Amino acid sequence: MSTVINFQTDPSKYRHWRVEYDGQVANLFMDVDENAGLFDGYQLKLNSYDLGVDIELSDIVQRMRFEHPEVKVVVMQSGNDKVFCAGANIRMLGGATHTHKVNFCKFTNETRNTYEAAEADSSQKYICAVRGACAGGGYELALACNYIMLTNDSNSSVALPEVPLLAVLPGTGGLTRVTDKRKVRRDRADIFCSIEEGVKGQRAKDWRLVDEVVANSKFDEAVQERAREFADASSKASGLTGIELTPLNRTFGKDGSVSYTAVEVEIDRASSRATITISGPDGDAPADMEAMQVMGADAYMLRVARELDDAIMHLRLNETELALLVFRTQGDAALVQAHEALLLDNQDHWLANEVLKFWKRVLKRVDMTSRTLIALVEHGSCFSGVFAELLWAADRSYMMEDEFEGDNRPMAAVTLSASNFGPMPMGNDLTRLETRFLGEPDAVAKAKACIGEALEAEAADELGLVTMILDDIDWEDEIRVFFEERASFSPDALTGMEANLRFAGPETMETRIFGRLTAWQNWIFQRPNAVGEKGALQRYGSGVRGEYNMERV
Amino acid sequence: MSTVINFQTDPSKYRHWRVEYDGQVANLFMDVDENAGLFDGYQLKLNSYDLGVDIELSDIVQRMRFEHPEVKVVVMQSGNDKVFCAGANIRMLGGATHTHKVNFCKFTNETRNTYEAAEADSSQKYICAVRGACAGGGYELALACNYIMLTNDSNSSVALPEVPLLAVLPGTGGLTRVTDKRKVRRDRADIFCSIEEGVKGQRAKDWRLVDEVVANSKFDEAVQERAREFADASSKASGLTGIELTPLNRTFGKDGSVSYTAVEVEIDRASSRATITISGPDGDAPADMEAMQVMGADAYMLRVARELDDAIMHLRLNETELALLVFRTQGDAALVQAHEALLLDNQDHWLANEVLKFWKRVLKRVDMTSRTLIALVEHGSCFSGVFAELLWAADRSYMMEDEFEGDNRPMAAVTLSASNFGPMPMGNDLTRLETRFLGEPDAVAKAKACIGEALEAEAADELGLVTMILDDIDWEDEIRVFFEERASFSPDALTGMEANLRFAGPETMETRIFGRLTAWQNWIFQRPNAVGEKGALQRYGSGVRGEYNMERV
User: Fold this and answer.
1) Is A521 at the interface with chain B, CB within 8 A?
2) pLDDT digits 0-9 by tens, B151-204
C-alpha cells in the first residue's frame, strides 16, 4: 500500500457513487465498481467499500453543500438491487497495515460525522432508504443519516455482524450510535450485535434500529414522499445557487513538499517533522458576499480551508512516519481579520455559513490528527481569529517575545475574534478556549474582552493563550531541544497521551466514537484473535472460522 | 503467574502498609517490603507496587469505613524517607501477561475510585502528603486523594514520566484526573507528562498539580494541622464505633467451585461458564440498626455484598478463561425486601449508609467485569431491590414464564424498591434503569410506580425489565443455544462490545478512566514499542532505551 492516496476527486472521476439532482431533493446512489479498489488484492463485492469509495462520498457531501445549496434532502440508497451495502471490505481490512486500518476508520468516521451534521449546519437532511442487506459498515452509513427507512421484504435487514463474524467491532460509530443516537435498549443492542443475520421489518422499528418500515411495493414512493415532506418542512431558503469547487492548485515537490496557493508543506524527514505555513491574503476582502460568491472557490477563506484540509489528510495517510506537525502563519493580520469579518458579519448568507462550518470541520480534523501539533507564533505571523484556533488545537505553542536581531517583520501578535468564542466548537461541544480553561473559566471572559486587540507576547502569555514566550536568546535552542526530544518518544504512547489530553471534560457522541469506541477497536485490531494468522479477519471467506485464544482480559 | 490470588487479607498480614489511628485522623503509611512481591522475579524497590500492595490498600480503605467510622480524615504518606512512591513496579509489568496487566490496572483503578469517593460517601477525606519523588502510579495515588500537599525541597516532586520513560500511559486514572479533576491547562499537561523529572514546588501549585506547597521544615506540622482543620469542619458525627470485618467464610472446591455462606460459585469449565447463586436470608431482618450493628459482619446484607465482591474479583483474576458469568438467586423475596428496607429506612445511620455505599461499589465492579453477564430469573428466585440491579448490570436476562412441569417453587417475580431509583448509580451517574431506558425515559417512571409489587414474567416484560421471558417449552433450549454461541465468540470483540454497550449516554471522569484512558492503555500494552523485545517496558532498567517503530497510526 505505498501508492500516494489522493483525497481530491470530482464527479467526472467517480466509480462508486452517482447523484441525481432533482430540485430540493438529491438521490445519492451507492453502486460500487468491484474492480476499482484503491489497492490491489481485493474486489469490492456486494457494495463493500474501501478508502477510495469513502473519498468519493466525502467529496459528494462537500460538493452538495457548496455546489448544490438548493438541496434540502439527500436520499442515500443503493444502486444495487440485492444489497444495500455489505460494509467495509474484509479482504482489504485483512491485508491492510494496522496504520492504514486505523486511518481508514478515522477518515470514514469523519465523513459520517460530516453528513450527519449537514442537517443542523446546512439544512441538508439525509434519509437512508434501505433495500437489501445493510450490514456492518453499511448499517453504519445508515446510522449517520438523520432518518432511516427500511423496506419490508425477506431480503432486507439491518445488521452489525462484526463481533460474531469478524471478531472486531462495528467501529465506524456503530456501537455508539446504537446506544447514544438510536438509544436502543442495551440488552436488545447486545442481541442485535450478536446475530449475523440482523433484524428485519417491524422488529427493526420496535427496537429503534430504523425510523420507518414500509411495505416493499410502496417503498420507493414512500421514500420520495418523505423526502418531499422533509424538504417542504425545511426552513432553508429555496433556489440558492452554488459555487463550483474547482480543482485545487497543488504541486508535489521531490522532497515530499506540497505547495498550494496559500498553504505550503515542507518536510524535514531527518527530524520527522512537517511544517505547514499558511500565508495571509494577497488582497482585500471581497466587498460583500455577492462579490465573494462571484470569486467562488478562489475566495481566500474557502481556498485556505480546502488547502489545509487536503494537506492534513495527505500527511495523515501518506506521511505516516512524521512525528511533528508545525503550524506557522505569515501575512497581514488585519487582512485576515477583514476576510474573516465578512463571514462573521453575514452568517445568515448561505455561503458565509458554509465556509464557517467548513472551518469548524477542518479544525476538528486537526484536533483528531494523531501527531504532535505545535504552533509557532513568529514575527510577521497572522494568528488571528480562526487561525488562532490552531494555537489551541496544538499540543503546545511557542511565541516570539521582543525584537529578534535582524528580523524586521512586524512583532508577533495574536488577535482574537468572535470565531474564538462559539462558532468553532471542538467535538466535545466546547470551544477550544473553554476546553483550555476548564480549570479557570474566568479566563475565557478575560480573553473575550480583548477581541480585536493585537496581543503581543507578554499579553498573550498573561491571558494564557500560548504555552511559552521566548526571546531571541532562547527561541531556537528551546524549540530545537523540544522537537528532538518529542521525535524520540514512542509514537504509540504519544497517540494515547494526546487522545486523552486533547479532549478534556465532557464527552459527546462524537468524542465517544473517536475515544472509547475507536480505542477499543484499535486494541482489537492488534489482537491475534482478529488479525493473527488464525484470526477471524484473516480467515474470513476461507470457510474456516477463526481460532480464538479464549482468555478474557 | 499461576498462583491463586487471594483478595482477602487483614492488618495482621500486611507487609506494605500500616495505619496509625488517632481519633478523627488516621495516618496511613506506604512502606513497601521489597521482598514481598506477589510473584517471583521482581523486587518492589522505591515503594513501587504490585497487585499485592494494592490488595492491602483496598482492604485498608474498606476497613476504614466499617471498622473506623470515627475517622474523618486519612493522611496518605510514605514510610520511606527518600521516596513517596515510584508507581507500579516496572519489572512486574514487564513480566506480566497482557491479561494480568489489564486486570491489575482495573483493580487499582477501582481502589483509587473507592477512596476518592470516601469523602462524598462516608465523610472520610483523604489528604496526600507528598515528600520525596512521587512518580507515575505514585502520583496517581495522590491524584485520587481529595487534597494534595507537597513539601518544598529539592527531592520532592510530582511526575508522570510514563510516556518518555516507558512508552505507556499514566493509565491508573493519571491523564484523566490531570485534565478532568485537576483541570490542568492542556499544554501544561502535555509538558508535565513529557518530562521524566516532574514538577517541584511552587510551579506544581501554579499548574494545579497539587493544592498546597509547604516549606519542608514546616511540612509535617502543616499536614497534621490541615488534617485537624478538615476533621473539625466535617459534618460527620463524632465518636462512632465500628464493626469488625471478620474473615469471610469461604471454601474452595476441587472443581474450582467456591462456597460462601450465601453465595455459591459453580464452574462448568467445558462450557466456559460460572454460575453465581445468591441465597436469600436465612432469618428475619434485624429489628433495628442497633441490632444490625451487634450482628456486625454477619448481618445478611453486608455479608452477601462481601461474598459477592470477593467472588467477582476471584473470577476476574483467577478464572480468566470463563466466558460467561450467570447470576441466579434463590430465596424468600419478602425477606430480602425486609433486610434491604432496614437499610433504606435508616440511611442516616452510619452503618446503613456504609452497607448501601458498599453495594453501590460491588455493583459497579459487576458493571466493569469484562465477561458476558447473564441473569436467570427462575422460579423461587428473589431478584428484589438491590438484587434486581443485577438484571440490568447483566448483558441479558432471561425470566421463567408460567408454571414449569414438576417445579413447585414460587413463580418467578421481580420486585422493585427505592434502591433501583437512585442510591446505586452506575459510573455514568445514571441509575441502571435510566441507562437502560435512555430512549424511553417514561419507562423509568412506569417502573417506579410498581415499587413493591411482585412482577411476574408478563408484567416484567411489559415494563422492559427483562430481555426475554420463556416458558417451560423454550427455556432450556433457548438458553443453552445462547450460552454455546456466546462462548464461541472472540473474547476480545466481546470485551470491546460490552465496554461500549454497557455505558451508554453521558460520560463521567470515572467512565472516562475505564473507557477512553483504559482502552488506549490496553492498545499500547499490545504494541511492540511498549511490550516487544526491544520495547521500553522490557528494556527498562537495562540502561538501553527502547527501540521504536516510528510509524504513527
Assistant:
1) yes
2) 999 999 999 999 999 999 999 999 999 999 999 999 999 999 999 999 999 999
Q: pTM for the complete prediction?
A: 0.96
Please check the confidence at residue B428 and state whether its pLDDT lies above 90.
yes
Q: Is B532 on the interface with A (CB under 8 A)?
A: no
Q: pLDDT tens digit string along B220-244?
A: 999 999 999 999 999 999 999 999 9
Identity of the amino acid at B38: L
List the domains of chain A with CATH numbers: 11-233 (3.90.226.10), 251-497 (3.90.226.10)
Q: Is B179 on the interface with A (CB under 8 A)?
A: yes
Tell me the residue ranges of DSSP E strands in A40-104: 48-49, 73-78, 83-85, 87-88
C-beta separation of B523 from A526 below 8 A:
yes
A298/A287 Cα distance (integer angstroms): 15
| Closest to B498 measured CA to CA, from A46, A4, A193 | A193
Q: What are the residues whose beta carbons fall under 8 Å from the beta carbon of A457, sequence distance 6 or more?
A: A399, A400, A401, A402, A412, A466, A469
A63 touches chain B (CB under 8 A): no
Shortest Cα–Cα distance, B461 to chain A (Å):
13
Q: How is B425-450 classified by DSSP, letter by letter?
A: --TTSS-HHHHHTTT-THHHHHHHTT
CB contact under 8 A, B99 and A552: yes
300-329 in chain A: CB under 8 A from chain B? 320-323
Please give the average per-residue pLDDT across B271-296, as a whole number: 98
A470 pairs with which residues across the strands?
Answer: A400
Nearest to B551 by CA among A491, A272, A504: A491
Q: Is B192 helix (H, G, I), strand (E, B) or coil?
A: helix
**Residues on chain B touching A489 (C-beta within 8 angstroms):** 163-164, 167, 194, 548
Strand residue runs (E) in A416-456? 454-456
CB-closest option in B320, B440, B515 to A551: B320
A385 band by pLDDT with thresholds 50, 70 and 90? very high
Please judge whether A529 and B503 are an interchain contact, meaning their C-beta atoms are less than 8 angstroms apart.
no
pLDDT digits over B26-35, tens only?
999 999 999 9
Task: Enumerate the residues of chain B whose CB falls inside 8 A of the CB of residue A502.
Answer: 186
